[in-house]
Design brief:
Elements: E1 11-12, H1 21-30, H2 32-38, E2 50-51, E3 58-67, H3 73-79, E4 86-92, E5 99-101, H4 103-112, E6 116-123, H5 126-132, E7 136-141, E8 153-154, E9 158-160, E10 163-165, E11 170-174, E12 177-181, H6 186-208, H7 213-216, H8 220-225
Helix pairs in contact: 1-6, 2-6
Amino acid sequence: MTVPLMNQLGVVKRNIVRADAAAVAQLGRLGSATVHEAMGRVGLLKPYMRPIWPGAAAAGSAVTVLLQPGDNWMMHVAAEQIQPGDIVVAAVTSECSDGYFGDLLATSFKARGARGLVIDAGVRDVRVLQEMGFPVWSRAISAKGTIKATLGSVNIPVICAGALVNPGDAVIADDDGVAVVPAADVARVAALAQKREDLEGEKRAKLASGVLGLDMYDMRGALEKAGLQYID
């Protein structure tokens, strides 16, 4: 009986199918909020995942890592699998806020062409990471170090901050959060997201001209029906 990769430890999948690079770049320009809405309000990691420095933004294909609590061994294994344009997405088998990642690993990841890291755990060396321009989204910042003793896996499906991430999926991360788009669906979602962005551009122009959302969205009748009263 074959055991699903999600349940295996000590596995490194070397050949993954990555999302279309042009579609990923388009999704990155549109941002995580627009992408999340275009997908039907799914694919968003939990809001505790925050960029470690403001203004960070990245879009790329996921190299996934499953880590053990307090052990970053597999981060070094994952570095070998990074290709230019990838974002490493790291999950932990049990909740942990230790500092799994710092400037040395960032130097290695950056040399391989990684665009960033999303990790449901802690990171450290924040000032240096910002100076390097290497963006990270994490659940915590912690100076506490880790060991290298226990196997996890690389490029298997993982649950990161409540979201399923498969290797090769598109990852869109910015100040608003982190959204994940299945690799096979990036072209469709990119088209929907662009349509949404174009429509919002029209709405923005109307609002800037002084039109109220009450009228643009035709809310007055529904508000009256709900019982809203204006009192002079």
